[in-house]
Amino acid sequence: MKRVSAFVFSLILLSLLVGCSGNQETRTGNAEATVARDTSTEKMNDVLLRAAMSRSTDPNADYIIGAEDLIEIEVFQTEELHKTVRVSSQGYIGLPLIGRVKAKGLTPGELEKEIIKRLFKYMEDPLVSVYVKEYKAQRIGVMGAVTHPEIYSVTGARNLLDMLSAAGGLTKEAGSICYVLRPLNPEKKESDRAETIIIDLTELLEKGNTALNIAVFGGDVIHIPKGGVVFVDGAVNKPGSFPLQGKTTLVQALAMAEGLRYEADRSGVSIMRDNGAGARDLIAADYDAIREGRQPDVALKENDIIVVPVSGVKNFLTGFVNTLRGFVSVGKTVY
């Protein structure tokens, strides 16, 4: 009888230790979830702040001249060609010798080259400088998951990071994709249509791909949609749907689900992903191998379904320990 009691006591002690271990993982998981929700957005907004602080002071750098802008033109050692002119509503300026020149839609540098090309008929190697003295305000919309969504009235050259910074940066709900909606050239009689430019914010802000920091112009609308959701089910402490916070990985999603339960099959985690053809592909993952660095973590996509199966052996042990607990409880009642 003493041997049986000692055996039962050992099993109960083992189950209590396992339970403590599970609680520790849950607490760790909660901490990881909080970090996961905030880190990506913080990184992105830090890049936005640094970009705003380091912005070039030359407002003419990439500015696209528009109607009603006031332009100053200088031709070296030719005083009569030193003119300050306003761009007409049709987009033209008038200059001596060369007549009307289309300025709208050109940068100051491009307009300089056009004027030089026309002046070659009258002088040798003309030197031309073009300055924008007065900008007509451009209206650019920044919408969606930003701190201050609104229509901004701006002057001078602006790029995507400028406008995201002006809008106060991204909120924690922001996804990792930005859409720039741009009206097509009204001169092509397609002003009722717009093109959509898709920007990967992770590539731009975290990986530093500056080619994605595109110039934006009057009439553009920048939209930052909220991140999608992923679903976590099975042997986790808090199954359900969770928001995609920027770039969310499998480990982060499981942390948001408050960690794995003791009976989870940690090496048999699966991700079901929509393949766009009306079905779902299955991605297998080993949770412990990822945590230990033996496998790369899996970046999640919108509407992924994560399933953590129950380990048959662990489930049996849990049930066995529960049965023994019931046996001990009954024994105490009898005696």
Q: Can you walk me through this structure?
A:
The chain has 335 residues and is of the alpha+beta class. The chain has 3 domains: 2-40 and 228-329, Outer membrane lipoprotein wza fold like, CATH 3.10.560.10; 55-60 and 137-224, Outer membrane lipoprotein wza domain like (Outer membrane lipoprotein wza fold like, Roll), CATH 3.10.560.10; 70-134, wza like domain (wza like fold, 2-Layer Sandwich), CATH 3.30.1950. Helices cover 33% and strands 25% of the residues. The chain has 7 helices and 17 strands. A 5-stranded mixed sheet has the order 7-6-12-9-10. The longest helix is centred in the first third of the chain and has 52 residues, at 2-53. The protein is elongated, with a radius of gyration of 32 Å. The two termini are 14 Å apart.
CATH class of the largest domain: Alpha Beta
Structural class: alpha+beta
CATH topology of the largest domain: Outer membrane lipoprotein wza fold like
**For the terminal residues, how far apart are their CA atoms?**
14 Å
The major sheet is characterized as: 5 strands, mixed
Number of domains: 3
CATH superfamily of the largest domain: Outer membrane lipoprotein wza domain like
User: Which segments are poorly predicted (pLDDT under 50) over 5 or more consecutive residues?
Assistant: 1-5, 7-37, 327-335
List the helices and strands and how they pair.
Blueprint: H1 2-53, E1 70-75, E2 83-86, E3 92-95, E4 99-102, H2 108-119, E5 128-134, E6 138-144, E7 150-154, E8 158-159, H3 160-166, E9 177-183, E10 194-200, H4 201-206, E11 215-216, E12 221-224, E13 229-234, E14 240-243, H5 250-256, E15 269-274, E16 280-285, H6 287-291, E17 305-308, H7 312-334
Parallel strand pairs: 6-12, 13-17
Antiparallel strand pairs: 1-2, 1-5, 3-4, 6-7, 8-11, 9-10, 9-12, 13-14, 15-16, 15-17
